[in-house]
Write a structure and sequence with these properties.
This protein has helices at residues 38-49, 61-70, 84-98, 122-150, 173-193, 214-218, 220-229, 242-249, and strands spanning 29-32, 53-58, 74-78, 103-106, 153-158, 198-205, 260-263. Strand 1, helix 1 and strand 2 (53-58) form a beta-alpha-beta unit. The chain is of the alpha/beta class. It has one domain: NAD(P)-binding Rossmann-like Domain (Rossmann fold). It has a seven-stranded parallel sheet with strand order 3-2-1-4-5-6-7, with helices on both faces.
Length: 270
């Protein structure tokens, strides 16, 4: 019988308090798509700093080869994620090189031209959805087959605030639709694979300076629009995604799946 004279506490005090090691990725194999610039390059550097081994993927092979040479343990594998066979070859190559994939970062993405929907090119719409959504589904499934055999893994889909709100007046219907699809795909895959201890989450940035958003941070009117509509009154800085990314990639988020982590300066709280 329990000793009712002792106060009940759900905290197991025998477990030492450790706030650092859960964020480590020592020895884990992290596959990052779209690693040639922007978020992808930054995620690769953050993962490497946490001890990970990297598989770097992008169409611009020269860039990922240069990045691989700058990291302690990385391999560069070229891939256009819009090509199904190249996606399959990428995962096969990653497993052949390192033996497994522990973390998949579905980061590769493109945007459509800022045209009104009535004037949009359907072929361009399909291309954006192929890269931003369909490729993420394919790569997640390919990596999950390996993860299921080991009953562990983390998949991070890089979505956007525009998976939750429209992009107008930027007029990016394909981008907004694909990112909204990615958010709900994240939930579905999380539910399907939870029994295999595979966590699937989405990281959803607001406005950060990247190749995709360069014009918005070089045009004074557009920069003013970002500042005016962001409660923190500025765009994000490179390092302000580091913690959120590392949290989702590591054991620090071991009880988190199906979540969409917004890092947007308050954009979607309005």
């Amino acid at each position: 019988m329990a000793d009712l004279t002792e106060p009940f506490s759900p905290i197991d005090r025998s477990v030492p308090l450790d706030l650092v090691s859960p964020f480590r990725l020592d020895g884990r194999v992290v596959l990052v798509t779209g690693a040639s610039s922007g978020f992808g390059e930054r995620f690769a550097r953050v993962a490497a700093s946490a001890g990970a081994r990297l598989v770097l993927s992008a169409r611009r092979v020269d860039r990922i080869e240069a990045l691989a040479g700058d990291l302690p343990d990385a391999v560069a594998l070229g891939c256009d994620v819009a090509d199904d066979e190249q996606c399959r070859d990428l995962v096969v190559g990653a497993v052949e090189h390192y033996g497994r994939v522990d973390v998949l970062v579905n980061n590769a993405g493109i945007s459509d031209a800022p045209d009104a929907a009535a004037d949009a090119d359907i072929a361009n719409f399909r291309r954006v959805v192929d890269v931003n959504l369909n490729a993420c589904f394919l790569l997640a499934g390919l990596c999950a087959r390996d993860m299921i055999t080991r009953s562990q893994g983390s998949i991070i889909n890089i979505a956007s605030v525009h998976g939750f709100v429209g992009s107008a007046p930027n007029n990016q219907a394909a981008y907004a639709a694909s990112k909204a699809g990615l958010v709900n795909l994240t939930r579905e895959l999380a539910l399907q694979w939870a029994r295999h201890q595979i966590r699937v989450n989405a990281l959803c940035p607001g406005y950060f300076p990247t190749e995709l958003t360069e014009v918005m941070f070089t045009d004074e009117r557009m920069t003013a629009w970002i500042e005016r509509n962001t409660p923190l009154r500025r765009g994000g800085a490179d390092h302000e995604l580091d913690g959120a990314f590392l949290f989702l990639a590591s054991d620090a988020s071991s009880y988190v799946t199906g979540a969409s982590l917004l890092v947007d300066g308050g954009w979607t709280a309005r």
